[in-house]
Amino acid sequence: MKKNLAVKKAVLLAITVLAVVAVSCASSGGAAKTETQKAASDIKYSWNFSDPASGTTGWNMIPDEYWDFHGTATLSRDDKTFGKPMLRMDVDYSKDANSEWSEPKMKMTFKTPLEGISKFSFDFIYNPTFSKGGHFKSKVVIYNGKKQLAERNTDAILALDELPNGYVKGTVSLSLRSSSPVDSMVFSIAGYKTNYKGPVFFDNMRWE
After folding, report:
1. Strand, helix or coil for residue 30
2. Residues 92-113: what's their mean pLDDT?
3. pLDDT tier at 71 (50, 70, 90 boundaries)?
4. Under CATH, which architecture does the 42-207 domain have?
5. How far is residue 31's CA from residue 22's CA, in Å, rounded to a whole number?
6. How far is CA 19 from the centre of its chain?
7. Residue 168: enclosing H or E segment and its boundaries?
8. Distance from the CA of 34 to the CA of which of 63, 65, 115, 147 falls in 20 to 30 A?
9. Given this model, what pLDDT does residue 42 score?
10. Distance between CA atoms of residues 179 and 146, nearest Å
11. Which helix (H) or strand (E) holds 112?
12. pLDDT interval class at 33 (50, 70, 90)
């Protein structure tokens, strides 16, 4: 008799647990999101350089707004150097090797304004052998029309991941928010006392 009672209690407990799990799954859409799914759902806007016809996907250098930069900087799409499409900037800081903030700038205008953004992230790739010293910093400024909404810059970019042919990669994130829609942005890689001359690359560019 006691044995049968114990079995009944075990069955009732199992049924209760299953019911709780079923309710939990239903309330969350049927299944819990994986970390990858959560990360993807957080992305408000990202750049995809897969289509050769899209070129730089709307990024343009803006020489009239360069700060203490007297070299050359050009943008292109590159799918050969690392076997995947990325945004490439060929840049020459050699004339500004003593500058603490030598800044060529690029601009992006959005067809549909961005809302609810909080963080801009990207992978930055460069080759340390193309300079004798110094380092890089980054800056982002967001706008609504001509009105500046917010800006943020980083300290030295740390690139610790080693890639083929002497290149290194660092992931950078800049946190900035706006209660107004963002219809354009200016993004820059500033040289700090560097004479770097050669290509740098951008990958996984996104707003969250």
Report:
1. coil
2. 98
3. very high
4. Sandwich (2.60)
5. 10
6. 42
7. strand 168-175
8. 115
9. 87
10. 16
11. strand 105-114
12. very low
**Residue found by looking up tokens 């930069």 in the block:** 69
Dist. CA 69–CA 100, nearest whole Å: 11
> Is 171 in contact with 39 (CB distance < 8 Å)?
no
Given this model, what pLDDT does residue 38 score? 43
The answer to whether residue 17 scores a pLDDT higher than 80 is no
3-state secondary structure of 10: helix
Share above pLDDT 90 across residues of the chain, in percent, rounded to a whole number = 80
CA 1 vs. chain centroid, Å, equals 66
Cite the DSSP H helix spans in the chain: 2-27, 35-42
Joined tokens for residue 148: 């500046």
**Beta-strand relationship, 161-162 and 168-175:** antiparallel
Torsion of CA 84, 154, 158, 189, to 10 degrees: 50
**197 three-state secondary structure:** strand
